[in-house]
Design goal:
The chain is an alpha/beta fold. It contains ten helices and 17 strands. Bound molecules: pyridoxal-5'-phosphate. Pyridoxal-5'-phosphate binds next to helix 3 and helix 4.
């Protein structure tokens, strides 16, 4: 019998009383959007927290991706991964850019740098990798390839909030990185997103583009969009930021608990934590292999019968959706590793309010104690 289903994630909600003073300020100022005080503060606090040069806030992560492509004038073909949320490729589609899918690495599940060069053509202008589950891509080799072919690199870093790699923000790699602050992410502003960029000049161009292309009151410099984050979203971000370290610390405890309980179950593979990384524990993927008594979908259904709602991130692959599956790079022969992972992965619930007993119950079900 399902009482309170345990979903794969649940947004971290700070105490409501703590949010009231922020709302009072907004009511007092009557500034609701257009780079108001909350927005300015959140940009500044994120620059410090994330240790990056510039942050431009967005209404959501998809608009951040669209604008990142626009500001770098990306066109033609872009090399990307099929193993991601569909918005990665959709952002290319909206600009009439052709996604070229390249297979993933079997350990980390990110774009495999060894497969990139063979996919480069004279029309290739950029590489758009994803730090899937917040685990760093092979940023050094990707940059090396980009440099030798004169390509831009835009990281879809929607999962990588707060991740540090080799003592440096993971978000400072590539030409630009984009974040999502959707309700399901480690840090949320209900809906929201950001572009991390290297200098003030690029940030100014991005700011113009997210406000219809207005550079000043009477000058429109580009066909921009409306992608501005509003003051209530920004205020919620300021409050979340006060709690985010504690929220990530609790995620780490849950990750450790799962690893202890699930270690050594035949047919359940636990992908390892990334090396040289301060990680954010945003997802807890496991691979359900053929030695396990149930199929991946069988285990998914079994857990659901017990009120646990895992998610098959990322199944189906982006390359399987109707608008992409006709592309030459979308064939399953081109993407064997991505298909194998998409068919065996299951992301288990992980979020700060998940109790130790709930983790133990989920683990016990996976161990085969179904009653
Ligand atoms: C969540 C997500 C997005 C989209 O972000 P929104 O804020 O929901 O628009 C893009 N890419 C990846 C990999 C995501 O997980």
């Amino acid at each position: 019998m399902i009482q309170n289903p345990i979903y794969v994630t649940q947004p971290y909600m700070p105490p409501l009383e703590e949010f009231i003073p922020y709302l009072q300020q907004i009511w007092g100022s009557k500034i609701l959007t257009n780079n108001g005080p909350m927005h300015k503060n959140l940009e500044q606090e994120l620059v410090e927290y994330l240790n990056v040069p510039e942050v431009a806030l967005f209404a959501n992560g998809t608009l951040a991706l669209l604008t990142a492509l626009q500001v770098l004038r990306i066109s033609g073909e872009v090399i990307t991964t099929p193993f991601s949320f569909v918005a990665t490729a959709h952002s290319l589609f909206w600009h009439s850019i052709k996604p070229v899918f390249v297979d993933i690495d079997p350990q980390i599940f990110n774009l495999n740098p060894e497969k990139i060069e063979a996919a480069i053509t004279p029309r290739t202008t950029a590489i758009m990798p994803v730090h899937v589950y917040g685990k760093p891509c092979d940023v050094e080799n990707i940059q090396r390839i980009a440099d030798s072919y004169g390509l831009k690199v835009i990281y879809d870093a929607a999962h990588a909030f707060g991740v540090q790699y080799k003592g440096q923000s993971l978000l400072s790699h590539g030409d630009l990185s984009t974040l999502s602050f959707h309700a399901t992410k480690v840090f949320n502003t209900f809906e929201g997103g950001a572009i991390i960029c290297p200098n003030a000049k690029t940030k100014q161009q991005i700011n113009d583009l997210k406000n219809f292309g207005f550079h000043d009151e009477t000058t429109v410099v580009a066909p921009g969009i409306n992608a501005k984050m509003n003051e209530v979203q920004a205020a919620f971000g300021l409050l979340q930021l006060k709690h985010v370290d504690q929220a990530i610390a609790r995620r780490e405890e849950i990750d450790r608990l799962y690893r202890k309980e699930l270690e050594g179950i035949e047919g359940i593979t636990l992908p390892s934590l990334p090396e040289d990384t301060k990680y954010n524990y945003t997802y807890f993927p496991v691979l359900v292999e053929k030695e396990y008594p149930l199929t991946r979908d069988g285990l998914n259904n079994r857990l659901r019968e017990h009120g646990i709602i895992p998610r098959r991130y990322f199944y189906p692959l982006i390359s399987e959706f109707p608008m992409y599956r006709g592309l030459p790079s979308a064939t399953s022969q081109n993407l064997p590793v991505a298909h194998k992972v998409a068919e065996s992965v299951l992301c288990l619930p992980i979020y700060p309010a998940l109790a130790d007993e709930e983790v133990a119950k989920i683990a016990s079900l996976i161990q085969g104690n179904y009653t």
